[in-house]
Amino acid sequence: MDNNVFINKNSFTITSTEENVFICDKNIANTIAELNKKGYQTNSSCEGHIKFGWQEINNCDLSLLNKAKNDPRFIVLKVNKDSFDYLTPNMLTSIYISFIKDYKFPNLPLGFSLDNDNNQIIRKTINYYDNNHKKTHQELEAEKEKYLNELYKWAKNLPNIANHKPEKTKPQQFCEEVRNLAQKYNLPFFIVTKGASATSNNGCEAVKNARDNHIKWENDHGFDPNEDWNQ
Prior knowledge:
Helices cover 29% and strands 31% of the residues. The protein is built from five helices and 14 strands.
């Protein structure tokens, strides 16, 4: 656990207690704690791990064979009828954070970008090579530290949305006015319009029947009947 820390799932503070926690890479933990405290919920993250070594790639397209033979970073192991296998050194690592949803951030940390196929992941790739020059371990660690600092600085400057209540939509405002009117006259009601619904009942069968039918419709169409936009 020397390279990992525990973060409490409720307070999002770094802790030594192993109860009700999730594990996080040590050098990105302060950033992850800060983001979650501010309401930006994360799924997973990685601080980037620099590991020199080799990996075997199989069934590579034959059209790339000559390129592989002429590149000192590749070792061709076997040429097959329609493909070839080769060894290549580890070429890169990445710092990334995966969020539970697309928060549509107004900006991203310096050097980071959204994954092409997933707007819920921000990433900074650190290449082991600069053209054909292999970076030293010290150079890579310095580069990693630079971008981890940029990531933390970005997290510190994000607005806090943990207790932010979004402005009510027009359908929600309409339903709220009906709710207030019903309270004024002490009457049960159920109302639904495009984008919102509201109800309050004290035993009226007609209101209950209308709401029960709407619950069935919501369930059939993938909506959450228990969602309370008035919270």
